[in-house]
Amino acid sequence: MSSPVLELVSVTAGYGDNPIVRDFSARLQAGTITTLIGGNGAGKSTLLRAIYGTNKFFSGQIVFKDEPVERLPPWERLKRGIGFVPQGRCNFPAMSVGENLKMGCYTLASSRHDVAIERVVSLFPLLRERWRTEAGNLSGGQQQILEMAMVLLLQPSLLLLDEPSLGLSPKMQGDVFATVQRIAATGVTVLVVEQNVRGALLISDRALVMEQGRKFMEGPAAEVRTDPRIRQAYLGGNIQTAA
Amino acid sequence: MTIDATYLLQLTLNGIALGLLYALIAVGLSLIFGVMEIINFAHGEILMLGAFAMTFALPVLGLLYWPALAAAILATMLAGLLIYEVLLARLRTDEFERSILITLGLSIILIHTAQYFFTATPRMVDTQYGFDGVEIGTIRLTWTRLIGAAAALVAFAGLYLTLRFTQFGRAMRAIAQNREAALMVGIRPRVVARNAMILAAGLCGLAGSAIAPIQLVTPYMGQFLIFKAFALVTIGGLGNIPGAVVAAVALGLIESWVGGFFASAWQEGAVFLVMIVVLLLRPEGLFKRGGMRVG
């Protein structure tokens, strides 16, 4: 097997003095979509934040493209190719779509802005149509697409998505999942935390299941989807626990 | 009471000039609040440093008005950098109370340090323009007021263009609007906060150095102005920069009119009375809040 894009080795991370994710290990291969499943408070978002570097890292190792990155600040990880779209509305609401995209180019040399913006706008033509609209006035789904576009401007190798379909209509959820598939088809590795477990597993290659900050199960998405414990806990059965 | 039109126009122009200088202070406060989520209680003392820099640069260094103005602005920008690096850089955004104590403490230290070195005796700053000015009919405006107002207008135009069209400025608006999104696009909050502090101190330094030839310079001069500036920032809609400018010019006008038609003792009282009434009627301010809006 080729070397993974991302390797997590016994990662323990959290906030303040409280580790939430404990001793978590996993490997993500290039161009794959992996869904991170777990109940509320299982540590899914904390793990994504640890990979991007916006919370407290306690111990372990995060190896991205053969380089340990766990001690680097977020902007350095971004430059190396890790993109992160956090949960909730994560754009600049009082700036236009165009200005938001220009902010997405913040770490790029100014000579590369136009090319980068043209590339993502051709991927998401909606953004060209709404160029002058304030981001705060876009619909939830449009804002989600804008946020993904802002991160894709830098052509990341790894995209971390935290609840991209949260609060969206079923149709918009479908659009967002289709967008994630299109992104992965360009060779980007995607790690997604998603409340719509069924939808996310359908587009994923692999799945990681978390329980109380630890890895509970791992495998191909098709296998995890049919696991009775997962079916019961996340796909229509009792949502208390998968244990 | 009969109102003479020329006199009213004279008061109005003086009020606008004064309001623009208030706006420089308020805009700086707004920038710092937007980017760092702290209220800088020592902001008035940066203005006082700018004014004292003029009292030093003009007679002691023998500089003319314009080089002295530039030197005073640079001195306050340097002060802003030092204050940020030494005191504010380690503050987290959730440490609001700590930020109040630190900046309030700094304010007191700066006032008393200035009093120790320069004494509490008010100083006059005399420039090569003296009391010269332009006369349009029977209206007269001194050069120092005109230059102060013009410099403030140029500063606002520069600030607007910076915040609107440069990544340097957009990063400040970005952090004010969504801190997490700012991290998502790779903005370094500390670098942007430092830039905002230097910029805000420079604007305040411009106000202090422009006020120095118009008003008496004392170690306490920043105290009166800063409370007005706090109210302006709130009335203008917290974080709304054009809102703060409009509120500041309105305040300057009220102050000038009241001073012109009534005893000057009513000046300060009237200004704060208007502020209290506005804040009671519209606690959120007159304009849209948040996001460091520039338009």
From TrEMBL, chain A:
Pfam families: ABC_tran. Residues 6-237 form the ABC transporter domain. It comes from the Bacteria. Keywords: Amino-acid transport, ATP-binding, Nucleotide-binding, Transport. GO terms for biological process: L-amino acid transport. One of its GO terms (molecular function) is branched-chain amino acid transmembrane transporter activity. Belongs to the ABC transporter superfamily. This is Amino acid/amide ABC transporter ATP-binding protein 2, HAAT family (TC 3.A.1.4.-). It comes from Enhydrobacter aerosaccus. The lineage of its organism: Bacteria, Pseudomonadati, Pseudomonadota, Alphaproteobacteria, Hyphomicrobiales.
Automatic annotation (TrEMBL), chain B:
Keywords: Amino-acid transport, Cell membrane, Membrane, Transmembrane, Transmembrane helix, Transport. The keyword Transport applies. InterPro entries: ABC_transp_permease, BCAA_transport_permease. It comes from the Bacteria. GO terms for molecular function: transmembrane transporter activity. The chain crosses the membrane at residues 16-39, 46-65, 71-88, 100-118, 143-163, 196-217, 229-254, 261-281. It is found in: Cell membrane. Coiled coil: none annotated. One of its GO terms (biological process) is amino acid transport. It is a multi-pass membrane protein. Pfam families: BPD_transp_2. GO terms for cellular component: plasma membrane. PANTHER family: AMINO ACID ABC TRANSPORTER PERMEASE PROTEIN (PTHR11795:SF445), BRANCHED-CHAIN AMINO ACID TRANSPORT SYSTEM PERMEASE PROTEIN LIVH (PTHR11795). Belongs to the binding-protein-dependent transport system permease family. LivHM subfamily. This is Amino acid/amide ABC transporter membrane protein 1, HAAT family (TC 3.A.1.4.-). It comes from Enhydrobacter aerosaccus.
